[in-house]
Amino acid sequence: MEIHFYPGQHLLIINRGNIKFAQFEAMGGPAKVGNDPVMAEEPTWPGVYVIDKAEAYRTPTWPTSKLAWGTKLRDMPSKQDIWYALPSGKWGSLNQLYNSPVRSAIMEMHKELYGKAIVPEAWVFNDFGPIAIRWFKDLNGNKLLDSIESLSGQMFHTTPDNEAETTLGSPVRLTLSHGCIHLKPNDRNRLFAIGAFKRGTSFTVHKYHERYKAN
Q1: Sheet with 73-76, side-by-side order of all strands
Q2: What are the respective helix, strand and coil percentages of the chain, to the nearest 5?
Q3: The model scores a pTM over 0.90
Q4: Which tens digits make up the pLDDT trace of 145-201?
Q5: Cβ atoms of 157 and 132 closer than 8 Å
């Protein structure tokens, strides 16, 4: 199985042998570097890669991605705080994590996504969705992530907006990324089901001007 992404067409093609098996809508970064002050938008870089793993991704670069998707939450209105579950089994304070009172902001974020100003039972704001699929440039051709190689900072993932749209049964509208590849949640599930994200799968990002042509 091979994955081919055509960023200029927002098209993801799954081949078995040399025959197209499935296709999906997918959205990468812009064709040219942008000017976002937090992290500049960039193209999804062309090249041939290898799928490595899927993981719940966290990063301090994006504030709402400090916590993994699905982290359990406990509303603490008397303290004007929200607690979040730690791996140790104890609870941490979101106010301390963000060095600021955040309960009202969290409730407003949930209202924007799901229509209800509440503290959810779990974190649903991670910019990379519940799971991110990572890839790397295979420098020695063995399809394994060795010490001379590293995971790309670009990855397949969904977004909080699209996860909410799916949950609510609303139309799912993909948007341009900062370089990653955005997928619709149901398409991500389908891609897992058909084995497209199996470790070692070949993955090609084509140039923006290249177009997929059906055989």
Answers
A1: 73-76, 81-85, 91-93
A2: 20, 30, 55
A3: yes
A4: 998 899 999 999 999 999 999 999 999 999 999 999 999 999 999 999 999 999 999
A5: yes
The single-letter code of the amino acid at 43 is P
Could you give the residue range(s) of every CATH 2.40.440.10 domain in the chain? 2-60+130-205
Q: What is the model's pLDDT at position 215?
A: 64
Beta strand pairing status for 2-6 and 11-16? Answer: antiparallel
Helix (H) or strand (E) holding 97: helix 94-98
The CATH homologous superfamily to which domain 2-60+130-205 belongs is L,D-transpeptidase catalytic domain-like (2.40.440.10)
Angle between helices 160-168 and 185-193 (to 10 degrees): 90
Residue type, 92: G
Q: How many CA atoms lie within 13 A of 48 on its CB side?
A: 9
Helix (H) or strand (E) holding 121: none
